[in-house]
Amino acid sequence: MVEWSIIGYNTLMPRKWTNQDTLTYRRQLIRLYSKENLSIFEVGEKLGLSYQCIFQRLKRLGIKISPESKKGYTNKRSLNRLQESQDLAEFIGIMLGDGHISREQIFVTLGKKEKAYVAYVIELFRRVYACELKCMLNKKGHHVLYIGFRNLVDYLLSIGLVMNKVKEQVKVPSWIFRDRKYIIGFLRGFFDTDGSIYKLKHGIQISFCNMSMPLLDNTRTALISLGFSPSKISSNRVYLTKKKDLLRYKKEIGSANPTKMERINKWVGTEVAKPGTL
């Protein structure tokens, strides 16, 4: 396995493991992963490394990867039949924004300054799925919420979510369009992760940004179904600009992300707004 060493201010070169490196890493991972029975994520958190790096080290060193032996592993969880709800729709919106699905786990990555929203998402997940998301900080200081839950992964894939949202051009699950409350939940979750509000020269604008065109088209359809007048898709975004739309969005949908809701309250419906973006 190749790792990287810094040899100058901005220059990186690969460094092969020495025999001592191999021995050290093997002992370290056997102790943490096998004897202490920590998950790959937990080992990474303890060593200050990404879970991808830990996974590759385990493979390189021939250490058996056995997630089924870890506390709370997916196959030891059961998933009760989920009822369609506004909370579930909101979580789907979050997953379509900043979520990711692997074969065994789901992740939601949130910003450095979104600690309050992290707590909200954990509570929302608990209400919907009756279990707990774990949280770790990655190298960039972002909050990564995650859980190993194979039955949940299978469920999310069965309703149309995908592992590669851009490559597979994900869209909104059709059941969300059956109820106005579900649409509101989805829009709130999606805005809180992939949305922004900022000041224009002569007003305020809300945007939804994503690299999946079907998802943006669905978002536009959702807004229209609620009586809003969104823009056409432009530069991977859908916009709300009309003052009456912004006022209605604030009142009827809002945000569960305190940072974004603070910006909405400060700007929408006021005559003076300071420049900035979120």
Automatic annotation (TrEMBL):
Q: Which organism is it from?
A: Candidatus Yanofskybacteria bacterium GW2011_GWB1_45_11
* Organism taxonomic ancestry: Bacteria, Candidatus Yanofskyibacteriota
* Matches recorded under Pfam families: LAGLIDADG_3 (PF14528)
The alphabetized list of GO BP terms reads: intein-mediated protein splicing
Domain DOD-type homing endonuclease as annotated: residue spans: 91-228
What is the name listed in the Swiss-Prot or TrEMBL entry for this protein?
DOD-type homing endonuclease domain-containing protein
Which GO terms of the molecular function aspect are on file? endonuclease activity
